[in-house]
Amino acid sequence: AKAEGRNTWRFYNEAMDQANTDKFNLLQRIRDALKNNEFKLYYQPKICLKQEAVLGAEALLRWPQPDGSFINPADVIELAERSGLILELGSWVLQQACSDCQYWQQQGFPAVKVAVNLSPIQFRDGRLEQTVLTALRHSGLAPEALELELTESLLIDNSDFVQQQLARLGALGITFAIDDFGTGYSNLSYLRQFNASSLKVDKSFISSLSVSLRDEPLVRAIIQLAKSLELTTVAEGVEDTATFTMLQQLGCDAAQGYLWSPAVPAEQFIQYLQCKR
Ligand code: C2E
Ligand code: CA
Ligand code: CA
Ligand code: CA
């Protein structure tokens, strides 16, 4: 019976989806990478569309491989979320982003902010406020220089627990951006309850703006909505000057995209700041 059991196990094991094995291996590698300090933060400038000045940067996770390639950050985040490792990874990101931003400010760019992506899981844990406070204290960064990017899926989960954490973080002076706006939910009632300062128009609406007229009314409406709620708008994924000009005409406040820069290592971002001065 024992041998049979083992055979059965092996049967299932061999029949197991290869993708699952790959994910298991990747998770183990993510654990090791975190331990061995292999993760990096890259920074993509956020540009003010009126003056073309650099407002700050969004921190984006990168995991460089020995062959010079990168593992897809979305895959890393997804696995980290499902395994709970996002808590440890997320606090590393907060810590690193705050100290990099503090450094830029010290180097003569006191108005440059940093934006950090947060996973909804980080809110469920209950220790987020403490993690953020620790990152600010260790780095010496002012809370006003930190922006947290939140997804609609978190905000729609209108639980008191989440609301209270957002309120406490907001009271510190931290600001919030609603990420990937327009891709999540049609129920916008969360916009009333929650005090965000900006709204990021998802790049799926921006990428075809200059080639097809289909998305123009939508982007126009989102910008109007944001204005009426006194939120600033940030367009994601701007890749060409035609889109840039259209966004300026539509009254969009800020933008990010390859037109200006992809996400780059911290040392390169400060060079970018220096040459834009
Ligand atoms: P996101 O927050 O929506 O980030 C924007 C994504 O668009 C980034 O992909 C960025 O590299 C890419 N992008 C920027 N400009 C352009 C452009 O002009 N054209 C195009 N086609 N793409 C552009 P990335 O770095 O692969 O990140 C993917 C997602 O992974 C992010 O989407 C975010 O949801 C997640 N992520 C990345 N870093 C972190 C992190 O530290 N914590 C958490 N929780 N999530 C993260
Ligand atoms: Ca983001
Ligand atoms: Ca986004
Ligand atoms: Ca996205």
Properties at a glance:
binds calcium ion; single chain; binds ligand C2E; 277 residues; alpha/beta; globular
Annotation field: number of helices = 13
Bound molecules: ligand C2E, calcium ion
Distance between the termini: 75 Å
Order of strands in the sheet with most strands:
1-2-3-4-5-6-7-8
**Beta-strand residue percentage:** 15-25%
Question: Overall mean pLDDT score?
Answer: 91
Largest beta sheet, briefly? 8 strands, mixed, barrel
- Looking at how many chains there are and whether they match, the oligomeric state comes to single chain
**Rg over CA atoms:** 21 Å
What features would you describe in this structure?
With 277 residues, the chain is an alpha/beta fold. The protein contains 13 helices and nine strands. It has helices at residues 2-15, 18-35, 73-83, 86-106, 120-124, 128-139, 152-156, 160-172, 190-193, 203-206, 216-228, 241-250, 266-276; strands at 40-48, 54-62, 113-117, 146-151, 175-181, 198-201, 232-235, 254-255, 264-265. It has an eight-stranded mixed beta barrel with strand order 1-2-3-4-5-6-7-8. α2 (18-35) packs across α3 (73-83) and α4 runs parallel beside α6 (128-139). It is globular and about 55 Å long. The termini are far apart. The mean pLDDT is 91. The site of ligand C2E has 22 residues, from β2, α3 and β5.
